[in-house]
Amino acid sequence: MNIKTTALLLTLGLSAALAQVPAPSAPAQVPAAPGHHAMPGHTMSTPAASMMGGPSISDLTNDSNLLWMDATSMSNLAEIETSRLALGKSQNPAVRGFAQKMIDHHTVAQRELMALAIRKNARLADRPGAEQRLMYKKLQILSGAAFDRGYMDVQVKGHEATVAFFKDYLSVGRDPDVVAAARKYLPVVSGHLAEAKRIRSQLR
To answer: What are all long-range contacts of 44-50, with beta carbons under 8 Å and residues at least 24 apart?
Structure first.
């Protein structure tokens, strides 16, 4: 699987988790996507269709380093937003503890990613992707045990997609600073995935 495909799957990559969640009663209003600036580096040749509600980074660059940074930014922001939602809706101590950990870890990761982007003169996404925002809307309509199951299922699917995406990037990435960031966070994301699976298995 090429890096553009996995970047798209990461920004979309929760469709399986969403399939069992009821649709919201009205569509959300989604603003246009922000602009992006490419940086020089390794490029990929496989195109990916835009499904982000506006020009996606996949439309504007084939640079694998920038694709990783941009998709990771959207992933971090989605994790923070959905986990804040979990703190407001869940009464399950394990789910709440996991959500707080996601907020803490992904806030630090996003801060470090933005510092890297500044050094690379790259403008990254400043909000989750369209499918991630839809996921948030669908989680909003759930409550109680149904929310806990939905949130943790999304966490498992999302972290599985992220692990695959990081590994794909590391097979083609050429910028040593971006590669170092991906290598640093891959074991962290893998740890999140293992914990998410454990918590999900305990829910009824």
So the answer is: 44/2, 44/3, 44/4, 44/172, 46/2, 46/4, 46/5, 47/4, 48/4, 48/5, 48/7, 48/8, 49/8
Among all chains, which residue has been given the structure tokens 């920004």? 11
3 state SS of 54: coil
Question: Is the Cα torsion angle 2, 71, 57, 15 positive or negative in sign?
Answer: positive
List, as own/partner pairs, every contact residues 150-153 make where C-beta atoms lie below 8 angstroms and the sequence separation is at least 24, other chains included: 150/17, 150/20, 150/21, 151/82, 151/85, 151/86, 151/90, 151/95, 151/99, 152/95, 152/98, 152/196, 152/199, 152/200, 152/203, 153/17, 153/20, 153/200
pLDDT tens for each residue of 16-34? 444 444 443 333 333 333 3
Fold classification of 1-12+87-204 is Ferritin (1.20.1260)
Give the pair of three-digit tokens for residue 101: 């950990």
Give the model's pLDDT for residue 35: 35
In contact, 76 and 113? CB cutoff 8 Å:
yes
Domain range list for the chain: 1-12+87-204
In whole angstroms, give the CA distance from residue 123 to residue 120. Answer: 9
Distance from the Cα of residue 30 to its chain's centroid: 17
